[in-house]
Please model this.
Amino acid sequence: MRLCFSGVILLLSTVAVADELSPQRQQELSNLLKHDCGSCHGLPPKGGLGPSLMPDALVDKNDAVLMDAIQNGRAGTAMPPWKQFISVEETRWLIGQLRQLY
Amino acid sequence: MKVLLAWVCVALLGASAANADLRATGDLGVVIERETGSVQIVNTSKPAMLSRIEGLGDLSHASVVFSRDQRYAFVFGRDGGLSKLDLLQDKIDKRILQAGNSIGGAISQDGKIIAVSNYTPGGVKLFDAETLEQLADIPAMYGDENKLSKVVGLVDAPGQRFVCSLFEGNEIWLIDAKNPRQPIVKKFKDIGKQPYDALLSADGHYYAAGLFGEKGLALLDLWEPEKGVEHILEDYGKDDEQLPVYKMPHLEGWTMASDWLFVPAMGQHEVLVIDKRDWELVKRIPVAGQPVFVSGRPDGRQIWVNFAFPDNQTVQVIDVKDFNVVKTLQPGKAVLHMEFSPRGESVWLAVRDEDRLMIYDTETFLETGRLPAQKPSGIFFSDRANRIGW
Model:
């Protein structure tokens, strides 16, 4: 039983490790956020053609809304879908970054 | 006696320093470094960085116009910052925060008025080019509810006028600033959905706004504005699949080469060629990605095209003689902007993710130089001072 239990823990921690983004990928995503998202949202992202993405502007938007906007874009606006380039996991990391900006 | 000697020394030192610093403004350019909020002043004839000026705020979407004497550069920052740089003394001459969120600007025909187009609060403001004193505030109010629209595509036009477009308002405004404290605005409504940027022909005759919300361009003839705005290329490719747009195209730097106009196609991997005699589509030139800038070499023989993410490592050159792509270059990751030397023998590229500027010979397509720059996003040479609509 104890063995089985530690096996589960081992399994869980392996999954967690697999989900972690490599430092290089984090760097790429930060760059994307600053410069490619930033071309419409600003740097820091206080808004431009697209709305502000600063923590105070996102406070009443839950993660699911942001995930949908980034993955699928927003119809009728200039926001394109990014799912071809950014995975769900990476998008979650980006949302985390946005929520703790500055 | 000692005092006198000291004075002579100071005078001599001053004279030699002045000589060493002699700098002709026609050789100068300004390079935007978007991440650090700094600019470089560069020499464009003997490529080199001369100085770096910091503290210009958010330059994530910055542009520059020059005073007619080419001594001063006016930098329009995203955060509403308007900075007047002294290119001879490598310093900020004056700087104001004139709005919350800004997208670009223009300088009047006589060089005395700076106009800025703002997103927040949406509108246009006019400033005295010498003092940066505000002369007029023109809120971009539209519709029955008097909402404010983001203002895009602001250019100067002959006759002390400015022209701009309202992104949400779907309007083009012609602003007569002969009396800059009491500008007169003529509004053209329902010009098409979501104009995103605009351009002026080199002779100041035509203003055209690209539309994001529908196909085509809104065209205003400034020689006969009373005829109103015409919607051109309304029907082209309307059944084609529209690709997601990862960066808005820019129309500044459009080219009217002899009878043709070259513009980026929105959401397509194409450059459009339009015959300006009847404003009909002549050709759709297939290219490597979605064009951002479609810039004509000053002599009009070549068109250089850069692209939106994810194809922004590529630059292509179109020969205007037969409308074909004649060269594909891979200068590096994220080529954001291109600027020609005044007569076009060379072109400078801002390669953001490689932290460098690259210079190419436009005849041989060979690289002739490179300079370090921190996340460069825009390159502006002082000869812009003498061009209408830039």
Summary: Residues 1-18 of chain A have pLDDT under 50 and may be disordered. Helices of chain A lie at 2-19, 23-41, 55-58, 63-72, 88-99. Chain A is about 60% helix and 0% strand. Residues 23-41 of chain A form the longest helix (19 residues).
